[in-house]
Specification:
mainly alpha; Growth Hormone, Chain: A; Myo-inositol_Transporter; transmembrane transporter activity; globular
């Protein structure tokens, strides 16, 4: 029998140390970039606790309609931010866009804090939404392009963890300030300050982040692409081999050079865009941001006092973070499609039970606790299975030349759906009550399951180029 050559122990140690050093470098880069996700979470979640304070008669005196407009103005801005940022990211690069978005976060956050009227606040939240929509496109796109196939799901899911961590952070700060400074009419302004710090860290951290090698190669800069890929992989030979494979895939996709509406005449391209848009829409219409934007309002409607609802709402953030950590683990060992289908199945069941509880138990003293328990079940399965797989699959399905635009249009659709939910929920809650409003989301969840079962492909453990070949 022929003996297998053994690698000397000293060489094994050297390779191991080099791999550990490279892993640390990737962790640092991912941590800096996913500050965009943290800002996403903070700025979408902060409205949850401050809305009742802001809507008071001695403050902005917001009607249910104006509450919806103030809340959803950010998501409308995010829709247009997602749509435009994809093209800018393809033209100017992922790194440059993230730097500019950090500046936009600082300016718009400051504008929201000092807004004197509802009109000014709506305007500044729209601009803040442009930044939120921008990072929702650029961050997963960048991470998908620098990650190895094995690590891609975990790295993009880390962005989802940062989003939920941002929401938990702001839920805790809202509860603390809302109870300590309840007598201060301007407490809602203090609640907004938390978004300034991570924006500063992102701004000063971006110079250390390398540009995407795939983007550099698409701009005919192979030398810079190889240099950055070598930094990311920690091995020049591995980087050279990977770059060669990427170049070969670019040649195979050379017919897709720039965007044109004529491309939609091609069934394969049209299918990709419809799939991306569909995933974005169902992620929002399932109902997650009803909980993240109006969690405190829902708990008040179910029977909690205001200050108690602020504290109870922290549990939403805690479960979201635990679920995101669970999702990061599952992403490495479960197929994406299986995770998505199971997640939607469980969110559907939890919403159905909320409907039945609102119908039969709404007069019982335990009803508020039934609602919060079922909301936590909904959150766990959404944040661990639905949310991470949606972001990952959207970032995976488009070819390099169309990735920025494709992710941008898909995320634009996601944010438009988010806008509709944020605008209409307080009106529906006021007109129809908790039970009927949640029944509408139950029906949408059923439709989302059918869409996913019939159309969403499996993308786990495949290179980006292989994913597109198999769709």
């Amino acid at each position: 029998m022929k003996e297998v050559d053994k690698v000397p122990s000293g060489q094994q140690t050297f390779n191991s140390n080099k791999a550990e050093k490279n892993d640390r470098y990737l962790i640092i880069i991912t941590a800096i970039v996913t500050l965009g996700g943290l800002l996403f979470g903070i700025n979408t979640g902060v409205i949850n606790g401050l809305l009742p304070f802001m809507a008071a008669k001695n403050q902005l005196n917001l009607s249910p309609l104006l509450q919806g407009v103030v809340t959803s103005s950010l998501t409308l801005g995010a829709a247009f931010g997602a749509l435009t940022t994809g093209r800018f990211a393809d033209h100017y690069g992922r790194k440059s866009l993230l730097f500019c978005l950090a500046i936009l976060f600082l300016i718009s956050n400051s504008g929201c804090i000092f807004a004197a009227t509802a009109s000014w606040l709506i305007g500044w939240r729209f601009i803040l939404g442009l930044a939120v929509g921008g990072v929702s496109v650029v961050v997963p796109t960048y991470l998908s392009e620098i990650a190895t196939p094995k690590m891609r799901g975990r790295m993009i899911t880390q962005n989802d963890l940062m989003i939920t961590s941002g929401q938990l952070l702001v839920f805790c700060s809202n509860a603390l300030l809302g109870n300590l400074l309840a007598a201060d009419h301007n407490v809602w302004r203090w609640m907004m300050i938390i978004g300034i710090i991570p924006a500063l860290v992102l701004l000063f951290g971006m110079p250390a982040v390398p540009e995407s090698p795939r983007w550099l190669l698409s701009k005919k800069q192979p030398t810079a692409a190889l240099a950055n890929l070598t930094k990311l992989r920690g091995n020049s030979q591995v980087a050279a081999d990977e770059l060669q494979k990427i170049q070969q895939s670019f040649k195979q996709l050379k017919t897709v050079q720039t965007w044109s509406w004529k491309l939609l005449k091609k069934p394969a391209i049209r299918k990709l865009f419809l799939l991306g848009i569909g995933l974005g829409v169902i992620q929002q219409l399932i109902g997650i941001n009803v909980i993240m934007y109006y969690g405190t309002t829902i708990l008040i409607a179910s029977g909690f006092a205001h200050q108690a609802a602020l504290i109870a709402n922290i549990s939403n953030g805690v479960i979201s973070v635990i679920a995101s950590l669970t999702g990061m683990h599952l992403m490495t060992c479960w197929p994406r499609r299986k995770m998505l289908l199971l997640g939607i199945k469980m969110t559907t069941i939890s919403l159905g039970v909320i409907d039945l509880s609102a119908l039969f138990f709404n007069r019982l003293t335990i009803f508020p606790y039934i609602v919060i328990l079922l909301v936590l079940v909904f959150l766990f399965f959404f944040q661990s299975m639905v949310s991470p797989t949606t972001w990952v699959i959207i970032a995976e399905i488009f070819p390099q030349k169309l990735r920025g635009l494709g992710v941008g249009i898909s995320t634009f659709a996601l944010w438009l759906a988010n806008f509709g939910v944020g605008l209409l929920f307080p009106i529906c809650l006021h007109q129809f009550g908790l039970g009927l409003t949640f029944f509408g989301f139950f029906v949408i969840n059923l439709l989302a399951y059918v869409f996913t079962y019939r159309l969403v492909p499996e993308t786990s453990n495949r290179s980006l180029e292989k994913v597109q070949q198999n769709i």
